[in-house]
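Troubleshooting: if your tokenizer reports a length mismatch, compare against these two reference records.
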Amino acid sequence: MKTFPMFLQMAGRHVVIVGGGEQAAQKARLILKTQARLILVAPELDAELSAIVSQGRAEQVPDLSVDVMRGAALVFVATGCPGADHAAHALAKASGALVNVVDRPALCDATTPSLVDRDPVVVAISTEGTAPVLARQIKSRIETLLEPDLGEFAALAGRLRAQVSRHVPQHARRFFWDWVFSGPPRRAMARGALRDAAKLVKDSLASGGAAPVQGAIALVGAGPGAADLLTLRALRLLQEADVIYYDRLVDPAVLELARRDAERVFVGKTPGASSWPQDRINAVIVAAAKQGKKVVRLKSGDPGIFGRVTEELDSARAADIPVEIVPGVTAASAAMAALCRGLTERGVTDRLMLATAACKPGDPPPDWAAMLQPGTSLAIYMGVARAESILRGMQRAGIPLSLDADVVSHASTPRERRTRCILRDLPRAIAENAVENPAMILVSWPKSAIVEDQPMLQCL
């Protein structure tokens, strides 16, 4: 290493920034996150820096001198003028301070790393100035791994250390802290329930640091297919899971993001082959969680939209197992994004209806007249194989068959295909274009549309 990474103590010290423009403001934003006193050296400051001074968060010194730099924890030089930068660098060296001259590596004693800030948890990334873009990419990757509330959780642990020392025997402390940061408290914090996490830790301390092994279930939305449409929380849970139960429509690229040694169990329903009944799925995910495992039930799209999530929630709750739902990008959103349109449009469609054509056996057919009215966008899930019955039902409901319809299959993936036609020709368009599942049918009825029967097929 040409440079040695370390963290400088900032409390009770001051940092000098030479310059009054945007480059100086960038460094000021960084230092204001610390407990250092900030001194801005410039005869004039831009609006942002002036506001910082007027708020009492920094002091302005108009003239540069060795005295103002003496004893500084750091000096940043950000004038943007080569001559002024060199002069300020010389004075900073004369004062004995560490100096960083923006965009001039040869004049830097210290460089500013890319930071992942979860104060008091801080991760610094440096490429020694060779590849700043790579450092930012690494920062982005680490940002996805660390929960937003991790800093507050770490601070809570710090406040409880003395209590842990009093209540937990020394030989058991390492196990206790591993339970805090790897078990139910960490999972509660990760889903945004910091108070629940704190209660779990404090309750455990009250009972002498007992930390029973307990599993958990996460019902996770895998999105429409593209792996990069996963939420950050979904990605983190996949990387922490002991076992993953996944559906047929979950893209293999999504599973590649999971922890390598996680067990993966297919529980989908494959046409023409044996399938897992819902009660069996409920039983196996509960059984795994009872063994203390972190269980991810991975569902395509969003688990709360036609994903039969209620049965799995009820089973987990009945077994007193912690359970959470992690939303995913639903197929309707991905399909409209593929068409480069919005699901709603101001003044045109101000109502969005999500419907499934796959009703429970014995249920009445969908009430298309109630779902599709002027000013509505209708997204129909699982409807491709039922296009004929959908068309007949809409015709009986008096819906104009000249409305535009779009069918998007495999949205967001390399296999994506888009077909457009009028509603009357929907079954024929699906057949002629060999539309495959998974696919969404999207029908819009604009408020001001003048609709009339148009027998012409209009497929793309």
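Reference record two:
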Amino acid sequence: MSKTLDDIRELIAPYNKKGVPVAPQTTFATDLEWDSLTVMDFVAEMEDHFDIIIPLNLLPDLETVGQVADAVEGLVEKRNG
């Protein structure tokens, strides 16, 4: 498992009120039952943690934890040049 995925799982923990097991295929809307406010809070946490900006137009395409990890890794690589 990647360091990015491990970090994202740690960031999810405070928002995971039902204690759902978090795997790459875990969905935010269905499995974690997050509303849009929770998603935006989580996005802000990720941006701070990884020192990136996640474009809002990217969010609708990120349905699973694995997709988010891939996107974050891409944004970090882009930032680092």
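Descriptive notes for reference record two:
- The chain has one domain: 3-73.
- The longest helix spans residues 65-80.
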